[in-house]
Amino acid sequence: MSVRPRDVGIGKLFERVRDAVVVAEAGTGRIVLWNPAATEIFGYSPAEALELRVEALVPDHLKARHRAGMSRYLETGRGDYIGSRAVLDLPALRKTGEEIHVELTLSPVDLVHGSESEGRFVLAIVRDVTERKRMEEALRESEGRFRALIQNALDLVMVTEADGAIRYISPSSERVLGYSPQEMLGTNTADYVHPDDLEKAFAEFAEVLSGPGVHPVAVETRVRHKDGSWRWLEGIANNMLGDPSIKGVVFNHRDVTDRKQAERELAQRAAELAIANAELEQFAYSISHDLRAPLRSVTSFSQILLEDYADELDEEGKDYLERVATAGQRMVHMVEGLLNLSRVMRVEMHRETVDLRALAGSIAQGLKQSDPERRVEFAIDGDLVAEGDRWLLRTVLENLLDNAWKFTGEQPRARIELGVVEHEGVPAYFVRDDGAGFDMAYADKLFGVFQRLHGADEFEGTGIGLATVARIVRRHGGRVWAEGKVGRGATFYFTL
């Protein structure tokens, strides 16, 4: 027999309450009251539910426990949970067979005294907490993964109070600083910071605290190791004081001592190299400058002897003097090349937008005027703009175009091309010719001082021009390289 609420007010409350309300006979477990919320949770309509026993809502693995509890209640008037104020968290079964999680409280009730319904009943107030359980489980798994990540992280993770007291520090403290977490808990971060870094560390800490919510600040400081040495730590500090689950400042530090040491050594070597280069350049400049005068004297007096005393010299003597004059003149050119090389390394750079087409056109015109009998076609790209020092880039083009002009000297009709292609995502400018070319096996020697792949009797030159190009390109942060084939021409590339 079903039982209904005794008055309209209670009936409306029973219908509208959001939690499931289920009343069942204690002896048989037969359901006698079932509200709409129970239908929503368990899937049974009221008519279906009133044909069921409570066991239909209990998963198989809990049925024995359920029966035992109801038996004790019938025998003693007391059950394990019936009548207690405890909220139970138990699995339950829906009509579909799906297992869900519910929270419920159980209370004994006496529905109608003196009626055929009189007897022991149990009232269950049920709430579906399946989704909440799922979220809690996901949160536990997430927290577990996070905890495992922190516990095994190579970086040092630390949480402090606003005054710097350490509330948490990851196990990596022992690897990084030599202290176990237990040794550092409760101590203050200031106890470990290098005295010279304290002021900066306090300023960084104040900056972290000044920001609302999560406020990341980059930090870097020296920290004392347990063995007394100092380790460089860098990382990020976040203000988490507004987060009730953390309430502290979180630091994520990484030991960069080895990198700092390498940087110091590199800076020291760079400074030593800069000094050595400056001394070498000054030496080269001084030597070159001082050599010019005596070399001019040798060349001039050799020429005077050939002109004024030719009648007193035999052919062998004249040949010797001509060789002296030629060698002297070649030496003068080499000295001037060294001076130019020294100058391009010492001159102050002024970067600007440079029209390489205009520069190349002017240089090409000068080359044609130097030897109007030659038939050379210059093909210069129409869109050649670069960022760099105008004078130095003109020097690069002068050397490359002069080089191409020289090595196409034996061609009856020659072609020299200046253009640009994309190389590894940046513009690569090039000068290409169809002249003598070179053997790629010796390409690494092209840009060294006084390095020549052709004899002086084949092509004139000092072996300094391409070395000058390489140094200018490096000063612009680029690189230079060449491709060629003997008798098939060469192409010189450079980036800036």
Tags for this entry?
single chain; 496 residues; alpha+beta; Beta-Lactamase; Helix Hairpins; 4 domains; five-stranded antiparallel sheet; 13 helices; elongated
How would you explain this protein's 3D organization?
This protein has 496 residues and is an alpha+beta fold. The chain contains 13 helices and 17 strands. It folds into four domains: 8-129, PAS domain (Beta-Lactamase), CATH 3.30.450; 153-255, PAS domain (Beta-Lactamase); 261-343, Orthogonal Bundle (Helix Hairpins), CATH 1.10.287.130; 349-494, Histidine kinase-like ATPase, C-terminal domain (Heat Shock Protein 90, 2-Layer Sandwich), CATH 3.30.565.10. The protein is 43% helix and 23% strand. A hairpin with a 5-residue loop joins strand 1 and strand 2. Helix 9 (257-308) runs antiparallel to helix 10, helix 11 (356-370) crosses helix 12 (390-407) and helix 12 (390-407) runs antiparallel to helix 13 (465-475). Mean pLDDT is 82; it is low at 5-9, 112-117 and 454-459.
Concise synopsis of the structure shown:
With 496 residues, this protein is of the alpha+beta class. Helices cover 43% and strands 23% of the residues. It has 4 domains: 122 residues, 2-Layer Sandwich (Beta-Lactamase), CATH 3.30.450; 103 residues, Beta-Lactamase (2-Layer Sandwich); 83 residues, Helix Hairpins, CATH 1.10.287; 146 residues, Histidine kinase-like ATPase, C-terminal domain (Heat Shock Protein 90, 2-Layer Sandwich), CATH 3.30.565.
